[in-house]
Amino acid sequence: MQKLRIGVVGCGRISDCHFNAIKNNNNTMEIVAICDLNPTNLQKAQEKTGAKPYTNLDDMLKFENLDCVSVCTPNGYHYENAKKILRAGINVIIEKPLTLSYKDGKKLIDYANSKGKKVFLIHQNRFNPTIQCVKKAIDDGAFGKIYMMTSNIFWYRDDDYYKNPSWHGSKKIDGGAFITQASHYTDIMNWFSQSELKSIYAMGKTRERKIETEDCGSAIIEWKNDIIGNVNLSVLTYNENYEGSITIIGEKGLVKIGGIALNKILDWKFEEPRETFCDLSYDVESVYGFGHTPYYESIAKTLLEGKDFLISNKDALSSLKLLCGIVDSMTKKKVIKFK
């Protein structure tokens, strides 16, 4: 079988998840090129992967024959890097968020469509067995009407996190805690809602960290099918990542998913017992979980076998619209309504 030739731009903190996922799918893909401006990051990545190193993305795109490039650069550079990759006629994989504005995200998707190329947005928690089983329960109607969903993201990020690297907490490059820390949770809630957004009201504060963006906040989300969502976020939780959870409250059931990467089912109560779903919790080593491996497996099935990808372009844009709506509401201090 032909293997996909993968390049990675950005060899910082998240890149190891991509390197490991590609290695775990070595029957269908291989990493052949890596790119980073930081020589230390690049050297470590080269030693780990054996891939050809580049310090310039244009050179990597020019001299390598690539099927996909994974964008693992800081958030604010996603748009320009992905646009370059698509312009070169190469499919692009983008770590969340897609971009820092809905306008740029829409332009990027439209451009990819015009080039006949794929944009794969990384929301790896969708591939978690726990998340998959809850989605099946929703699709099967086990909850009846869903009334409300709540997510608590109570994490700890110290001063050093925001100093190294210094783009963390910046408006232009990072985008804020909701975009950086909460995006996987808001994506899952949006996916579970099975509806379009109706309104968002959010409040954020910078209470402690010396940064341009929020270090804690809350958002109330309303979908057009009348589900109410609530997201509570803090990176000031005392000395630990305390909770990352989603609770779904329905007419005929209640489920709470937790763990440090939505990897544990903490509560599972239904009018009709669904015992087969209760044993899917598992342990993970970090907040990134294990979802990147099945994510890349799905990319291979899409590109090599023509199968549908779990996160459609519509899903990617809807997820981005929610995040940008939260930021917009915090900035304007008003309710954001959607048509």
Overview of this protein structure:
The chain is 35% helix and 25% strand. The chain is α/β, with parallel strands linked by helices. An eight-stranded mixed beta sheet has the order 13-12-11-7-10-9-8-14, with helices on one face. The chain has a six-stranded parallel beta sheet with strand order 3-2-1-4-5-6, sandwiched between helices. Strand 2, helix 2 (39-49) and strand 3 form a beta-alpha-beta unit. Helix 4 (78-87) runs parallel beside helix 5 (102-115). The radius of gyration is 20 Å and the shape is globular. The termini are far apart. The model has no long low-confidence stretch (mean pLDDT 95).
In which range does the helix fraction lie?
25-40%
β-strand percent reads: 25-35%
Summarize model confidence as the mean pLDDT: 95
The stretches of 5 or more residues where confidence is low (pLDDT under 50) are none
- The counted number of beta strands is 14
| Morphology call | globular
Q: Which H/E pattern describes the elements?
A: EHEHEHEHEHEHEHHHEEEEEEHHE
Rg (C-alpha, Å): 20 Å
Give the key terms:
alpha/beta, eight-stranded mixed beta sheet, six-stranded parallel beta sheet, 14 strands
Brief summary of the model shown:
Helices cover 35% and strands 25% of the residues. With 339 residues, it is of the alpha/beta class.
